[in-house]
Amino acid sequence: MSEATTQTIWLTQDAYDKLQHELEQLSGPGRADVTAKIAAARDEGDLRENGGYHAAREEQGKQEARIRQLKDMLRRAEVGEATAVADEVAPGTRVTIAFDGDESDTDTFLLGSREVLGADDLDTNVYSPQSPLGSAILGKKKGDLATYEAPNGSKINVTVVKVEPYGG
User: Domain Transcription elongation factor GreA/GreB N-terminal, which positions (predicted)?
Assistant: First the structure.
């Protein structure tokens, strides 16, 4: 398994409960609804030219993939509360970095996942702790330097300017 698939996912109790509820909904009533749609479309006859059947099967595939994703996330979840004071970069913190030490060229983002943080409608950038930038700054404190590799292979140097807990 790759490192990204075996790494712990840090969740608040609220985020864990939200994901657990979604899994229960998809696994129970959601599966029943899709199965009923497939059965109804199958009863219409020739499956080769049955758009409703193919759409229901595609929906079923997406739903099953989401169920697998949720099960994996919940299996790897470590439940706890974010500390009121953040002195180092960790999942669930809001981080400001400066590129190449230039304090006028900064980026502020959340470290984590939109769904894990319950921030689906948030306008702020969110970076995964497993991303090149996220893994480079994980555990760093204000003033620390980090280097990560960009998709084009170049090395990018950043300085952690600010770390604060995410308030949701």
Answer: 9-79
